[in-house]
Specification:
With 502 residues, the protein is α/β, with parallel strands linked by helices. The chain has 16 helices and 23 strands. The structure holds nicotinamide-adenine-dinucleotide. The site of nicotinamide-adenine-dinucleotide has 27 residues, from α8.
Amino acid sequence: MEASLDTKTQKVQHRLGGSPWAGNSERQSPVFNPATGAVTGHVALASSADVDKVVRTAKEASPEWRATPLGRRVKIMFAFRELLTKNQRKLAELITAEHGKVLSDAEGEVTRGIEVVEFACGIPHLLKGEYSEAVSSDVDSHSIRQPLGVVAGITPFNFPAMVPMWMYPIAIASGNCFILKPSEKVPSAANFMAELFHEAGLPPGVFSVLHGDKEAVDALLTHKDIASISFVGSTPIAKYVYETACASGKRVQALGGAKNHMIVLPDADLDAAADAAIGAAYGSAGERCMAISALVAVDPIGDQLVEKIRERAEAIRTAPGTDDTAEMGPLVTEQHRDRVAGYLESGVGEGASLILDGRSLCGDPGFFLGPCLFDHVAPEMSIYRDEIFGPVLSVLRVPTYEDAVRLVNKNPYGNGVALFTRDGGAARRFEFEIEAGMVGINIPIPVPMAYYSFGGWGDSLFGDTPVHGMEGIRFYTRLKTISTRFADPSQGGANLGFPTND
Ligand code: NAD
């Protein structure tokens, strides 16, 4: 995807020390407007020497930021929150211009990101330690959580603002310096957020944005001065990032891809289930890690449910994300659109029934594909096994609740799952036996709030620490336990025995 510089398009630079920075690499990558297919810019791709410079800058800023009083850090977080709210529309427009999602959806992702900043505004409370008086004669004990130092985050294209915001507000509020390597497909939102954070008073060097591809990622994963890596992206890269960064001695959280199921029991409200399936399968053109891509209809409701979904999917208006009437925008790149469209052929070839074929839009300018619906999908088909990451919903039919649970639990991913039912007993049993990190009961996309933690099981998460909430605080800090003795000066004498508690 590398291309030579087109002077008619903008050059997206890194952000270092609070300002734009060109870096020293000649390499760059085109940025597209997915709604038109036009190249709108070129983003710099960092070399490993560029990575080294950014890490050095962060390392220099680290001691002062770490020592900055909590009250001052919090004031900056509050100011940042205000600036984000004021600039929410502008940030959403940048997202739509490079990702393609409809503007209201882009604004929604910014709202969810701001919620993490709001959580991080509570950092004085979140970082409180523990204290025990008189654990032994004249001895008191307390534990504190301290920042790791310089930490890095590597993020995917599908949430240009929200996924980075799962990471950097918490890391920075906790006293770390953060280096963000966003997806090279959607670079501008990250730069704008960094600009706003510095406008809010963040000292230079505490938050840097470094654009790049595998070369930059590899340099981050192995850099000796980086203490932890947070990654969100596809499963093969998440696994690679986890293994490589762990081998370099880093703390790692690596969130991967997904195949999220929605099980509909016969007693469910089928209209509500169909409405929910439409939003969850086709929202953001299916480019959400929590999108529902496999709908499991428990006998005998299959025919009825598929018809309700077909009617609704057919009515979805696919158009540029800036169009007020658009419900679904284009896919992120032509290459990705063609890959997703390729699954329609393989699904039919493997024997599934293609109920709705969105390929009529493929001839339009831009990277469009309309809603697609498969029925009678079997677990061995590639359209079920692979994460397609597009507007393609597969319906599988099973005879019983037990078959549905068995199917989901056999899937290697374990990100999100939803059950639609009116039966509280079935729901309770489902919560107990389903193997996934995030579960929705009559909620198709059960994304946890900022003060809970987000993360899947199985091939959806490598390393066992999910993002944000208290797990986020723990990930970006390390525990220190301190025992203090201030003995009465009249007592003395050495003792080589094992310390006891009296
Ligand atoms: P991706 O894995 O292609 O890219 C993610 C990041 O890794 C990007 O910054 C990219 O530059 C970098 N990268 C890509 N190839 C690399 C390589 N060979 N070596 C080192 N770094 C590399 O993912 P994507 O296409 O940008 O995003 C979509 C994927 O992200 C989907 O699989 C989706 O499910 C997943 N995702 C997961 C979650 C979650 O919470 N589990 C959230 C959002 C997206």
